[in-house]
Amino acid sequence: MTVSNTQTAAEPVRKVRLSRKPLHERVADDLRDRIITGQLEPAEKINVGALAEDIGVSLTPLREALKLLAAEGLVDLTPNRGASVSEVTVDQTRNLFEVIAGIEGLAAELATRRMSNQDLAELTDLHAEMQRHASDTSREKYFAINRKIHDKIVAFAQNPILTMQRNLLAQQAERVRFIALKRDARRDEAMQEHEDLMAAFAARDPDLARRTWRKHLIASGEQTIALLAQTQTG
């Protein structure tokens, strides 16, 4: 008996194009981080040529990135004068934190009602990680985890409109929050406020979570205002 073997031709390999964030958005991410962490200081003139060389890009994506940051309120673009980092003023900071405290306070309340046990466990792990870095001389790791916790609470609120409104202010809030954390005593106070929030989450007490988180944001704003006032009068 003859057995015929049929061999299926190998199908051609399909190349999958991986989506990548556009270059100007990646440049904006880099510049945003420099502004938030104070590597580029308020009112500092931006030398686009030197900055493009430092980042390793041409002027075109850098200019597009600056437009994005201008829309976020982090950069000022002035005709015939170029770009500069926007200033952080006392009045601006007061107005900003009055709003962001209300938004994130509501986010904490909604998150308490809506997040799963797995979500709470994720926040608990992040909180423990932040505690381990609270006494670091460098603030970058502590601040990165702090930022992630704030973002997670907003995400766990599961309210797209709240998320959209908060994100419009988030970058400005991050910058002034970083200024507040320059003071070590404020970092200790902030850690206790985070601890109080985790207790409210564990107790599933929405009202306590809202009041605790709003108090935390207001305190950060007041500390930043005090530091700015010292700088501007010094």
From TrEMBL:
InterPro entries: GntR_C, TF_FadR/GntR_C, Tscrpt_reg_HTH_GntR, WH-like_DNA-bd_sf, WH_DNA-bd_sf. Keywords: DNA-binding, Transcription, Transcription regulation. Pfam families: FCD, GntR. GO terms for molecular function: DNA binding; DNA-binding transcription factor activity. CDD domains: WHTH_GntR. The keyword GTP-binding does not apply. It comes from the Bacteria. Residues 21-88 form the HTH gntR-type domain. The keyword Transcription regulation applies. This is Transcriptional regulator, GntR family. The lineage of its organism: Bacteria, Pseudomonadati, Pseudomonadota, Alphaproteobacteria, Rhodobacterales.
